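Audit log entry. Action: structure prediction of a protein-small molecule complex. Ligand: NAI. The ligand was supplied as SMILES and no pocket hint was given, so placement is left entirely to the predictor. Protonation state taken as written. Sequence taken verbatim from the request; no trimming, no tag removal. Recorded inputs:
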Amino acid sequence: MVKAVVLGAAGGIGQPLSLLLKVNPQITELGLYDIVNTPGVAADLSHIATPAVVIGRLPPDDGMQAVLAGADLVVIPAGVPRKPGINGKIVMELATGIATVCPKAFVLVISNPVNSTVPIVAEVFKKHGVYNPKKLFGVTTLDVVRASTFVAEILQKPEEAPKVVVPVVGGHSGVTIVPLLSQSTHPLPGDLSGDAYAALVKRIQFGGDEVVKAKDGAGSATLSMAYAGAEFANKIIRAVKGERGIVAPSFVPLDADRDGATALGRAGVVDLEFFSSNVELGPEGVVKIHSLGRITSQEEELVKAAIPELRTNIKTGVDFVRAKYEAEEKNPRL
Ligand SMILES: NC(=O)C1=CN([C@@H]2O[C@H](COP(=O)(O)OP(=O)(O)OC[C@H]3O[C@@H](n4cnc5c(N)ncnc54)[C@H](O)[C@@H]3O)[C@@H](O)[C@H]2O)C=CC1
Ligand SMILES: O=C([O-])CC(=O)C(=O)O
């Protein structure tokens, strides 16, 4: 029995993600919450002949609480694309709901900026005394999916795309996205250096911009993100069901695995509370955070360039929540 919940289920990502979760045969209950349209989305999906029983609720009458009750896994794609300030408030509100109703659930954060929204969720959970760093994940899978696709494209082997695995570490925005192309399961041609290498790294780091530009005012990546989110959720579910050795990159709190954090520190990842690296998953969440392995000097430079921005992004998230709580303490009516 697995209950999955999508918060922001009526949106551009929320709807296709909910569809993919509905067709996942492991999921037996699917809860959909949004401030608009969830009853319709739920009614529509409920006609699909797969095991998951679907409910959809709106804010009045404790809609979020009803949806979250008994959740094993909560995915959060709520928010507005490319409006970080607004999303902080939304994510804080949703994290408060999770902390109150289903504090033991796995939480998968998609809402941007992931480098700040994951720390926001952590701070809310700490405030409620329910923080478990092993079950909190920032979803960076789209970067991994893009890296697989673009490498297969360069190799002129699109049919190999699903099998190409490239670890992508760091965070989920611009220069904080660090593809470790030297560890690709499908080596790149020897002549991919200089400008061609830089262009590939840049394409992975700024893949989101490519979609925003092509959509020409109609938002950012939704369908590829829904695919990526469903893939990552499925990995979590497989691990919960007891499958061993599942490893995937995710932006996680480094206190989920102190030894892993120490090893990352030796690899130059210092003074960060969160980082995306290959994470081994188990029934209780993070089993091990892998370090970076052997990387090239070019990749070392990319990691170095990512760290200051990550540090700033993480601090922005933490400060946002702390300032809100401080203001509330001073004026409880807020
Ligand atoms: N992690 C990643 O790789 C990616 C993250 N994103 C991010 O995902 C988020 C969602 O993107 P889209 O689906 O394209 O946006 P969208 O605007 O199409 O959908 C967002 C949904 O959130 C809902 N929402 C707003 N406030 C809410 C609240 N308080 N409670 C519940 N639901 C609420 C809206 O009603 C809407 O249905 C954005 O922050 C975007 O930047 C997008 C692509 C990739
Ligand atoms: O770029 C954006 O705004 C959405 C996003 O995170 C991505 O596509 O990777």
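Audit: result stored. The pocket of oxaloacetate ion (ligand 2) is lined by residues 81-82, 112, 142, 207-208, 211-212, 220-221 (CB under 6 Å). Residues 19 and 91 are 22 Å apart (CA to CA).
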